[in-house]
Amino acid sequence: MVTAVGLALLLIAQLGALDNAGIEHTEKGLSRALVTYGISRGLNGIISVVQGTEVAIEPVGVGMTFTPGQILDPVNDLIERFSTVVLVSGTAFGIQRVLLDIVATNTFSLIVAILVIIAVGILWFARTLPLSIKIPIYRAAIIFLIIRLSVPAMAITTESFYEHFLAPQYQESSQQLLFATDQLNDIRSKSEGVSESANEDKSLLESAKDLYRSATSAFDMDQHIEEFKAAAESISEHAIRLIVVFVFQTIILPLGSLWLILKTIKWVAVRRTPFVLGSRYEH
Q: Where are the domains of the chain?
C-alpha cells in the first residue's frame, strides 16, 4: 500500500498536470490583483483631484467658495491603504509563482524521484539495512514529496475557494468602484461647470438676471455634498469588501495551508520511525 501510494504521488508530480493547474490558478490571481491595483490607483487619483476642486459662486460680486471634495479625505486614506493591501497580495501571488517554478524544475523533481525510488527499494529489498540509514531516507523522501505536491495544491485550493465563495463579492465590489470613479468624474465636471459659469465676466444687468440662478447654484452645494457623501460610503464599503477578499485568499488561506504543511513535516521529522516501518519498530 505504501509503495502504491508513494509511486502514484510521484507519478502525479512527474506528469506536471498539477503544476500547470497551479500556475494557471496563480496567474489568474496575479492578473486580478494587478487589475484591482489599477482600479485603486485610478480611484485614488480622481479623489485627489476632486478634493482640490473649488466651487466658486459670485452672485453680483458676493464671492463664495466651496470645497465639498474634502469630505472624501478619509476615503482617500482608506483607498491608499487598500492599494497597499492589493500590492502586497500581488506580491504574494508573485512569490507563489516563483515557488511553483522552483518545485516544478527538473532538478527538484529528479531529487524527489530519486529519494522516493530509493525509499521504495529499501522497503522491499534492503530490510536488513540499519534503521540509522533507513529512517533519514524515509523522512527525506516523505518531506520532499510533501513539498513537491503541496505548493501547487495550495495554489489550486486557494483559487478554487475564491471561485466558489469570494468571486461574486469581488466582481460586484470591483464594478462598484469603477462606477464610483465615473460618478466622481461627473460630480467634478458639474462642480467645475458651476464655478466657470459664476466666474464669467458679465454686465450688471446680466448679473442681476443671473442672481436667482447663482443663488440656486449655491444652494445646490447641499446636493453636491450629499453626492460626495454617498460616493464616500459606497467606496468605503466596497474597498473593505475587496480587502477582505484579498486578505482571505493571499494571507489567511496560505498561512493556514503553510501551518498545516509545516506541522505535517514536523510530525514526519520528529517521529521516531516513519510509519512505513510499522509500529513494531516504535520501541
A: 2-277
